[in-house]
């Protein structure tokens, strides 16, 4: 009976890994806790041990395949069954033997002490045919590592790349001690231990496959930007988004804001006013305050509005969330928005759990944007800059303060008519702010 070894939970919020190299092939006999594959996650490259024994019947993907948690890594047949099939006769002693199993498997760890497995010389791998690894055993002296500007050794570990980069050199310039000269962390550390100055990069790169030239600068992503990049990529990959937009005469809103400040002696920003309009719009069109559950093919319509505010901070774009914004008055919403910069600086801002996002990119000096929806939300409202423009009023061309509203929405959740109705409501509140009194 075939058994499937599934990719386990990787921990630390990781849900996928890429196959770097197979350590076994179909037909190989595998023991409990024997490493069978090398995987690269966003954190590191590790060898994964198999929790049970058997004979490999098939592999779950080629080198370079990205597998998600729960995907089949490989399938195994019981060793006794495989042996009996090969001989054409049943072997009762092996067929009735209990199958060995291990406990839960975490990436890089088995349930018993195991040493890292060397790859077979012909094992498929990302860098082509594998050579033999060169472990440093007792009595062996490692060669003095040096940088070779013309060398391009394979480097798969992000940790190794970063360690070298932080010390002013490219790890691929070293001759690695791993299989096929793979550069390992010990190689970088051995080079640093010599205390030698890094060799300057060559002024001219003439390799046809090189992706950079002299004078180019590589900027590594920090943890926050990596997380944002992953979020943007997932949104674009999973959400079939559509966009509707319209120009709006905001002259009355600007005047109402001024009158409100004069009447109360308090300052009310345009972002707070538009946020209040958006929350009122979501009460009328709650389907936009939703998320899409692809696994269960269901729309999850959220009861509370947790309003995200796209904010350009010193470390990049973040989306702090104002919890239960629908229950706040205009003054309460204004105060919550004003508190966001301090919360970001103190590290206390809530950055998860939003159900709808407001993006005031007009503060960056642009009129419009095809914004990326903040997954797993279903919509984002964008607001452009407020400009004096010629506008037709009662048949005459007059100067008016105009802004552009944009709504990006998940087409699985609603159609264009619902999205347009929401956008029209918000636009109506901006053009005639007093109409919102009916919603309060």
Automatic annotation (TrEMBL):
Residues 2-77 form the Lipoyl-binding domain. The keyword ATP-binding does not apply. Keywords: Acyltransferase, Lipoyl, Pyruvate, Transferase. Residues 155-192 form the Peripheral subunit-binding (PSBD) domain. Its EC number is 2.3.1.-. Residues 83-102, 118-154 are annotated as: Disordered. SUPFAM superfamilies: CoA-dependent acyltransferases (SSF52777), Peripheral subunit-binding domain of 2-oxo acid dehydrogenase complex (SSF47005), Single hybrid motif (SSF51230). One of its GO terms (molecular function) is acetyltransferase activity. It is an enzyme of class 2 (transferase). One of its GO terms (cellular component) is cytoplasm. CDD domains: lipoyl_domain. Its cofactor is (R)-lipoate. The keyword Transferase applies. Belongs to the 2-oxoacid dehydrogenase family. PANTHER family: DIHYDROLIPOAMIDE ACETYLTRANSFERASE COMPONENT OF PYRUVATE DEHYDROGENASE COMPLEX, LIPOAMIDE ACYLTRANSFERASE COMPONENT OF BRANCHED-CHAIN ALPHA-KETO ACID DEHYDROGENASE COMPLEX, MITOCHONDRIAL. This is Dihydrolipoamide acetyltransferase component of pyruvate dehydrogenase complex.
